[in-house]
Amino acid sequence: MRLEKSRAGIRVRPACLLGLRLIAMGAAVSWMPAGWSQGTLQNLGNLSLQDLGKIVVTSVAKNPEPLGNAPAAVYVITHDEIMRSGARTLPEILRLAPNLDVMQLSPSNYIVTSRGLSGNQQAQNFPNKLLVLIDGRSVYSPLYSGIAWDTLYVLPGDIDRIEVISGPAGALWGANAVNGVINIITRKAGDTQGGLVDVGIGNYGSAAALQYGGSLGENAWYRFYARDAYERAFRTSTGQDAHDGWSLPQAGFRVDWDAGAADSIALQGDAFSGREGEPNLPDYRTSGANVLARWQHAFDDGSHFQLQAYFDHGRSWNAPTSGNVTLSTWDVEAQDDFMLGGNQRITWGAGDRVYHYRLDPQIRPDASLLWNPPTNTQNLANAFVQDRVGLG
Length: 392
What we know:
Helices cover 8% and strands 50% of the residues. The chain has five helices and 25 strands. β21 and β22 form a beta hairpin. The longest helix is centred in the first third of the chain and has 12 residues.
């Protein structure tokens, strides 16, 4: 087992491994047309402190505001930083945030934590107080109170920015945001036009991705992608093959439509199927799919309204701790913000989330994750209101 840890942008690993990883990065081949230009953002090294404070964030108050005005400790990983880093997975990209710790335990298993609260996986104690969102879709699993990072993938070139909030944010985001929020925001389909071929080959793994984006008339754009990756097995402390190699084919799409001067509609989804080897046992397998729809409306007075709904379905076979598991999630939420007088901004919202799970631990006699009853439906409703008052 190899352990990698990052803090404040410093990676701790043997020098020989670093050299091998750099060679693997150098073997990557990419082709991008003019539509994929990174010129939309300036080089951060040329920005002044005042300009850096003008970077727009949305996670702190659930509406756009300059980073310098956000009443929280926020670190923004920009699109340019991601593309220059060479990182190819979300946990590797999150190493760029100095307020996160990222550790890799196996080809498929990562721990991403803030403020030192990483939990203990052997005791089934997971970092369940760090909320992770992909375009507003929570990827938190209530079955084991954690994040399955092995099943989360976003093409690095499609990420617009990642906003990492340190500290409590539960008032707006719920109980899972006690230690912070990681909000992964992807680029609109109109910003990723043309074709992309990305191939990487290295001693730790290999991956290939294809993507194409086009237009549907004058006011609508689309993109679709397909990707396959394989991470080679680690070595045990005795130098033997751990038989934990991991593969994850995935495909997805996004459609954006400017329905008018003040309205925009987005529809996006992904599907994947993964397999991980296990010593002397059948392979662990997992699959899932999700689809998200979002409508946003901007009023003339500067207020905004958003309605979002998504469906997420996941299934695992021969899971090490639980046997066979199925989880389906339905979620719908509405949000509105408006000015009250000249110095007050009201933000409010409400939503409802329904989980349906089914566990079959008999498939795995050594399963330690047990639920009673093994099949159930749970409902979680929420509402919030925030009043920001400007002084002076």
